[in-house]
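User: two proteins, same treatment. go.

Assistant:
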Amino acid sequence: MDLGIRGKVALVSASSKGLGRAIAEELAAEGANLVLCARGADALRQTADSIRKSAGVTVVDVAADVSEQAGIDSVAQAALDKFGKVDILVTNSGGPPSGSFDSFAPEAWEQATRLLLMSAVGLSRAVLPGMKERRWGRILNVTSIAVKQPIEGLMLSNSLRAAVTGFARTLANEVARFNITVNNILPGYTRTDRVEHLARATSEKSGTSMADAFAKWEREIPMGRLGEPREFAALAAFLASERASYITGSSIAVDGGWIRSLL
């Protein structure tokens, strides 16, 4: 299937590893040029070099922290300097610390808001004028299954990723007339560093092993296993495509059936 994005420009945040990297690799395999950003310059450079060699597309890598406006500005400017546009935006970030309500000071809430919500808002603000002018665009926000079924111990993530969902659903209606779609993708338990961290936190809290934490999650998933980043990235590539032109305002889970709700 030709997804119709060859030659398009995709900006993918937090793309040096995990889900962000998998999405970048999938978009590059479809012929999209890339602007990648992450805080760690060395890992980001290695990822960019690997994608250039494997896919033969143009890749710009920018070490930046998109929880800060200066980081958002530097990434957006790099995209405009090299390509003059961004057609596809994928907002993604590492997760905030796990913990209960009582464990977080106001500063933790402010940091999580910048990391999860304001990064998505700021990056969208940076690319939308050009998308509107060209009357084509795709915005994808990587959120979490927690927006539909909150996960115990993830107070910050449950709260702020739900805020991203509300932002995206409202924005989708505002920009639909410009042929711009806005969708959210909800990863379930997937083999990433973030899930390794959650397993470690769970094992420390419960006094069990990390293997026990993984086994518990696998029992909760109807498919009986954790997902792989490439399985998640396949949906992202489709939603970024020309073929997905009538899908907007949706929040779609890639979770092996973990969410039990009807909608």
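Protein 2:
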Amino acid sequence: MTFAIEARGVGKQYLRGAAHYRRLHTLRDALSEWGGRLVRRDADDGSAAGTERFWALKDVSFEIETGEVVGIIGRNGSGKSTLLKIVSQITAPTTGEVRLNGRTGTLLEVGTGFHQELTGRENIFLNGTILGMRRSEIARKFDEIVAFAGIEGFIDTPVKRYSSGMQMRLAFAVAAHLDPEILLIDEVLAVGDAEFQRKCLGKMKDLSKTGRTILFVSHNMSAIDQLCSRVIWIDDGTVVEDSRDAYAATTRYLFGNSGTSILKGEWRPPGDDGLETEYFSLRWFRVRDAEGKTIARPIRNDEEAIVEIGLHIKKTNSRLNFGYSLVNESGVRVYWALTTDENPDCWPKLDCGNVTLTSAVPKRFLNEGLFRVELFAGIHNVTWFSQPGSTQYAVFLRIAGGLSDSPYWTAPRLGTVAPVLRWTAASG
């Protein structure tokens, strides 16, 4: 099988410290530095005062098939950008090798690949030429690139006078429209307005459908879920997970150890590890849709989502209480919902036998993101059986889209929640 990208034992070592970064302004400075190193005889092992060697990447290996869309995730400083620079051949690995099979378009940071003194028009033709395209091919794509970037009025202005957002828009337009077989993108959604972010995701989806290979670094887990069929998680320079279940991998990344046991929208007793008390046993805990199917995909916030608790009641107690708490990926507890929140006449009856409790998640209320749904079970003012914040009985729900019906708002909103509220106008 021919792979679009092959990485074999890739490692990258750097020096950090004052001695490594000291500027040498003259030949005399350089000779003095060289002579000092000979005297100290310590340059080879990186033990010079104020310096140390560190590995930004360590033995990274993977193979990416043609047409795959792969997300690279990890915290800041984990080695993601270093990996993309090596794959794009901007920097060489210290160990190992990367093989590419196809023409590569690269978008790593604002201004990458642009000559700052040249105009936008000149940079488009320069980038196309570097990619090996004929001038006629670039000319056919030119108007489409400019329109996508939205810089028609500045196309003959030197790029150095562009804002960072304008440079990023043009860079993405060039990289995406000049027919690369492999597209390498680093955090393109971090710059630009909501409309441009939407256009970027749409263009990447379109490219993926035509068999392009995309390597996409982002901190936006919702975008990773929407776009990628595979996720490579890097931490401290090493690959800690390479998964074709993007949703599961991003859940583990966002929630850490609290997300490792339950990754989907349903919990059932694993062997003997069920919740058994003298009052009830927990048969299942899940989030389902209106048709009764467990939700195992991102949904819009205007779609039906129902929290369902399956119980076998052994012994009745008037203070027995159930419910759930919702926590977002930032750790903010969004709300609690309990069976005893309403007037006692409205409480569900918990007679002995099998009982299924259901409660709908409010529509048009949650913001985009990943939510951990934690089971509440206890006897009021007596004991907890499952306490939100410290329970293993939890499932996950991811919201992506549906925040507004307005054509003017398509991106996630600021804030913990994003309700759609009715407005009225009265004259006078």
